[in-house]
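User: What would this chain look like folded?
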Amino acid sequence: MSSAFTSVKFGSLFAAIILWPVLGVAQKVKIPPADETINAATVVAAKAALLEAERIIFLGDSNTHNGEFIVQLEAAILEKFGAAPEMINLGLASETCSGDSEPIHPFPRPNVQERLDRALEKTKPDVVVACYGMNDGIYHPFDKVRFESYQKGIMTIIDKVKAADAKLILLTPPPFDPLPGRNRGKLVPTDAKKFSWKTIYENYDSEVIKVYADWVLQQRTDVLGVVDTHTPVTEYLANKRTSDPDFAFSKDGVHFDKAGHKVFAQAILDSLSEFGIEAKLSSNDELLQLIRERQAISHLTWLSEVKHLRPGVKKGLPLAQAEEKMKPISDKINSLVEKN
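Assistant: Here's the prediction, encoded as structure tokens.
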């Protein structure tokens, strides 16, 4: 499926993804501090690597499957540059990168490793953006073996993306927000008999997700870039709650609403400002809605084309039919972008 837009000299936009400092440790897991200096040579190499990027795929769990933050990113890029690479959303709800699953989950959680080779072969991306971790802790207290499975899963993604001659950007898992679950009585203490997405360990964010996020931040030497989404989303929630203690953009602490996706997308865009790149979230509702419509078609089509093991996902159109259906939407998007 070819991009609806002409390829643009695009390396300057995504090449400058950087790290925020690591904030700490939990559960006696030693995470070395991140090097806060930005290696100029690395930035130049990243820009060069992305200069001719035509296709970006996104891998991740339910928030990626929802895809609103991808819509926000695409709109911001289009308004900044007048064109964008093709962005393919291959996010899959319930997915992990480790293969772990709660015993009471209604089906074994899908594992991205099962479909990763096919995804890379069929889409042939220039860049892969991956975000895993929320489901990999399977909502239990911290467990060393489970953490090692997560680390192995991320390293496998790194190795396979390299082998496919693509570049990888890792996003840390966003925070699990305990407030909604606490208010609904869905959080349980460390000595609970069962843990799952329905009964979540009360310190799941601070003792599990934060550790996973800190470790991901250490992997920047092996990938094109690493983005800390955990810290800015956490800080945003804390700031909002100074005036509204019950503020949340998730009913269960896991799944973002549109406002949450905007904060998530902004966290990615903010990482570019260190390099003088000021791509901003779009306020053009018509453009955003058109991108949503096109992304919805593309998302289901590519999930079906790559294939996966998760039950309950609607089947997408064949590639040729999807391209035909997206063309008039793309024409409208082009027209809007040209006017601006």
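The chain is about 45% helix and 10% strand. If you want, I can go into more detail on any region.
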